[in-house]
Amino acid sequence: MTATHGMNEDETCRAFVMPALKASHWTNEQIRPQFRINEGRLTPTPKRHAQGDPLIADYVLEYAPDVPVAVVEAKRWRINANDGVEQARRYAAKLGLSFAYATNGHQIVEIDYSGGAPAIREIDRFPSPDELWARYVGDLQADSTVGRDLLKAPYDHTLRNSDNTAKRPRYYQRVAVARTLAAIVRGQKRILLVLATGTGKTMVALQTVAKLHRSNWVEGRKPRVLYLSDRSMLVDDPKDRYFLPVFGPDDVHKISGEPVRGRKIYFALYQALEKGDEEELFRRYEPDYFDLVIVDECHRGSARDDSQWRRVLEHFAPATQIGLTATPISRKDADTLDYFGDPVYTYSLADGIEDGYLAPYRVRRVRLNVDMEGYQTTPGQRDRYGNEIPEGIYGPKDFERIMVILERTEAAAQYVIDYLRSTEEEGKHGKTIVFCENNDHAARMRNALFNAAQAEVSARRNYVVRITDADGSPGRALLDEFRKDDSDEPVIAVTSKLLNTGIDLPAVRNIVLFRRIASMPEFKQTIGRGTRLCSVIGKGSFDIIDFVEATRLFNDPGFDGPPLRVVRDITDDQGRLLESEPESANGDAVDAETVAEPENEYTQEAGGTLEPQPSDATVDDPDEVDRIRARGRRYVVNGVQVYKWGERRYQLDTDGRTMRLVTIQQWVHDRVLELDLAPDKLRSQWATAKSRRELMTILRRADIEAEELPAEFGSPDVDPIDLLLNVAWGLPLVSREERLYRFLHEHRGFLASFQPEARQVLEEMLLKFAEHGSPQLKPETLAVRPFTDLGTVVELANRFGGAQALHEAIDDLGRRLLEAS
């Protein structure tokens, strides 16, 4: 065997791959070894999330800093170079490159996707930097002096991360910038970029403008740029956090009132540009004054054919116009693609989750009985204000818009509070947004949450608040606090639509949907409030609680990111969880009649006025429109029995995209093994009251309600611990009666060791175990009958010689019951 045959990959790279690259005139600065492409997929676990391994390319070849043109995948000498082709293709596709190479030091395989005839072939040497650069710009159809200057112009690294390192664009942001610049060079006047919420559209816009300013795109001067949107936050955040630090106050200006000239980058609200006593402000700028117009959230008002804001874009038609959105829309009267054309680059929610840049999510579906069965009125029935209610059956489409059932909101609020309490970490509840049908519904939801969370509200006055357009300056102040990653309050923000787009809320852990949503763009924008990661609080995933079946849109082919699992909950009439059961693997088709009420939202203008914003949602059911017009009011009723039913769980399949239905037994089995709970460990932790309580909390965070397992498994006579041991480890089932029988025969001496009065307490505790199971084996049980008939808790403790001795006796009883098997 030759020495080269035994070389490992590193030795092959040092001895052959690097020399081959340098022989083709690649310098050390142009060869990026161990190039980290992404962060690695985030996967939710019972401990919140785990991060997978990142994608790392052996080498990335850069013609200029941060301008990659090819990927090289290296294999050890004795491995066939073709074995690296698939890896090289995958990495090149991620980086948006048409050229990739696989080599083992003596073979070089080129993968070429440029032009119209992709090819894989063996070559004798690596192309030189100039050769690959010429092929790269040719493939982008940007092979001109301006095109070459634009594409290799340096990125701006002025912005800093929290640790003071340079804020460098991620790989997909560089791809988006390159595709955008190439389209500009080709003379494309309307350009669309689609990037999922939370993936940095503003960074793409900044770097695009920075490259344009560092090139000769506009001969003799720097280009003039107009950054447009319809909400103040969508204008002020990019201006203040991105462009001002890079370009400075002399070149950055927000248009308001008068047409200011002499700046390089202008920011404006459509509303401000439309103002003017004699002539609209936008008309006071010549149509060719701006070279580039960036339209943020371009799926909104400007997308509509008849929008008055479309006039602004049409006035500046000579400029190159770039549309930025996470959710392009396509419907009869509004089509983003029809105006801007097909996207030059798309980075989806699924891409962001796969790369570890966006938080994956779990889904818990909760349905209320009145939503499933409808609410039927009786002839002559009046609401709580004396209004006669038209007779009929009212369903989900009517609730909160025509028919208000107070208990429906109260039951949902109780569920949310119970859920937050069950998932708290270090005594803190996760920040939560609750989306309601309208401002009135949001007010009642806030009140219901306030009343359900009395302990939390006592500790934090602003634990739950409403933030809508109707809440004015106090609402905006609360929003500012809610947005802070490390703020303790507000914890719950209740809204209708105000928070569903354009606001960075990285610390949000829970999205609650109590608003019917039919619009895919609105749904994606709403879900996007939770997708941002937040290292400050260790957030790597988030949860969706859906009361209105809005998450059926996950099943639509138009949505690209499947939930990690879907659960349905069955609860009592107080909103407390009773049981769970799996949902159909395929789910139901999206309800075509699910419609959202059209509702104006408002944005704060610089001068303090509020401007109406368009809604993407429409009422498209003619019968529904007739009912709304005929009635003209909301009817409010109470005294209705409302409870929740149904739990559904999904788990991602091995392909990372499709959902696989799991039975409750399989779910429990997998979670117990994930938690590393061996039989002895399970028994020992379950035996005593304190460790059992801790174990039940751990299981609850893994979506296992231990006390509900007997009902869920159809074994009401078996203790939860025996069901856990059976499902996870295959141990035989033992009924509670059998355990009690064995205990009484094997541990008579234990009971006899206590004085009669103390033994009476333990015997009653055994009866509680026989009736309700081992979770009753705790000191708190002494506060209910029949123990209260025997005396106070202090008096009962005195029968054992004190509280400590009582606790030890109960724990010893629990251990002995578990041993009797």
Descriptive overview:
By secondary structure, this protein is an alpha/beta fold. It has five domains: 4-139, tt1808, chain A, CATH 3.90.1570.30; 147-347, 3-Layer(aba) Sandwich (Rossmann fold); 361-563 and 595-645, P-loop containing nucleotide triphosphate hydrolases (Rossmann fold, 3-Layer(aba) Sandwich); 663-733, no CATH class; 737-819. It has 29 helices and 35 strands. The strands form ten sheets. It has an eight-stranded mixed β-sheet, sandwiched between helices. Strand 15 (330-331) and strand 16 (334-335) form a beta hairpin. The longest helix has 17 residues, at 406-422. The two termini are 62 Å apart. Mean pLDDT is 84; it is low at 580-630 and 651-659. Residues 590-602 have a biased composition (Acidic residues). Residues 182-346 form the Helicase ATP-binding domain. Keywords: Hydrolase. This is Type I restriction enzyme R subunit. InterPro entries: EcoEI_R_C_dom, Helicase/UvrB_N, Helicase_ATP-bd, Helicase_C-like, Helicase_Restrict-Modif_Enz, P-loop_NTPase.
Quaternary status: single chain
Q: What is the makeup of the main sheet?
A: 8 strands, mixed
How large is the count of helical segments? 29
Radius of gyration: 32 Å
CATH hierarchy: architecture of the largest domain: 3-Layer(aba) Sandwich
Task: Provide the CATH superfamily of the largest domain.
Answer: P-loop containing nucleotide triphosphate hydrolases
